[in-house]
């Protein structure tokens, strides 16, 4: 049994990327894993100040919700990040969290497999490429981690548009593959 952390960065109720996160979490749980889901909605996550104190202390100097989430990331075997695509990139909330996870860089982190779940109004297969590249840049800083999979739901704009979309099954399957 592995510990799987699913982080949803959408701020919208009934969001399409949140539905992907939920499908992934169900799949991982059905595979017998311990699953925790964190949503960034209503979390206090401030911008990194660039002080780099975290590299010496392995703790962020900013007192908000980000250090507790980063600790959950450190303890997870697998992490799935779910984000809506804004202007062909990941949400600002997710990028800010990744910046604030800097204390993990010099820590004894457990995560190995990283997944990215994305949704967008645009339906082109290339739509998530820049968001995935942004996450890959973060992953590349962690020698033991890899991008294990991506799921994209295109053509979903309004809240709930994802209902019946094949990406929900793909997200479930990706979560269920974690053993």
Structure description:
- By secondary structure, this protein is an alpha/beta fold.
- It has helices spanning 16-30, 53-57, 66-75, 92-100, 129-139, 166-176, and strands at 3-8, 34-39, 78-84, 113-120, 146-154.
- The chain has one domain (3-176): Flavodoxin domain (Rossmann fold).
- It is built from 6 helices and 5 strands.
- The chain has a 5-stranded parallel β-sheet with strand order 2-1-3-4-5, sandwiched between helices.
- The radius of gyration is 15 Å and the shape is globular.
- The chain starts with a strand and ends with a helix.
Question: What is shown here, in short?
Answer:
This protein has 179 residues and is of the alpha/beta class. It is 34% helix and 20% strand.
Based on DSSP secondary structure assignment, what is the total number of beta strands? 5
Structurally, the number of domains stands at 1
Average pLDDT metric = 97
- CATH homologous superfamily heading: Flavodoxin domain
The share of residues in extended strands comes to 15-25%
Summed up, the helix count is 6
Query: What would CATH call the class?
Result: Alpha Beta
Order of helices and strands: EHEHHEHEHEH
As for the CATH topology, it is Rossmann fold
CA-based gyration radius: 15 Å
Numbering strands along the chain, what is their spatial order in the largest sheet? Answer: 2-1-3-4-5
Give the CA-based shape. Answer: globular
Please give the CATH architecture: 3-Layer(aba) Sandwich
Helix content: 25-40%
CA(first)-CA(last) distance: 7 Å
Q: What ranges have pLDDT less than 50 throughout 5 or more consecutive residues?
A: none
């Amino acid at each position: 049994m592995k510990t799987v952390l699913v982080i949803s960065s959408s701020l919208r109720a009934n969001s399409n990327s949140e539905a992907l996160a939920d499908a992934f979490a169900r799949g991982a749980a059905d595979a017998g894993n311990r699953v925790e889901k964190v949503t960034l909605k209503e979390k206090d996550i401030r911008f990194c100040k660039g002080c780099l104190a975290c590299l010496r202390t392995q703790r962020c100097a900013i007192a908000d919700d980000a250090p507790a989430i980063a600790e959950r990331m450190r303890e997870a075997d697998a992490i799935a990040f779910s984000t809506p695509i804004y202007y062909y990139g990941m949400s600002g909330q997710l990028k800010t969290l990744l910046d604030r996870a800097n204390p993990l860089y010099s820590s004894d982190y457990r995560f190995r497999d990283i997944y990215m779940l994305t949704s967008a109004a645009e339906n082109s297969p290339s739509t998530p490429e820049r968001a995935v590249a942004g996450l890959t840049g973060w992953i590349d800083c962690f020698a033991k981690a890899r991008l294990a999979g991506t799921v994209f739901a295109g053509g979903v704009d309004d809240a709930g548009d994802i209902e019946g979309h094949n990406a929900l099954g793909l997200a479930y399957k990706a979560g269920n593959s974690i053993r």
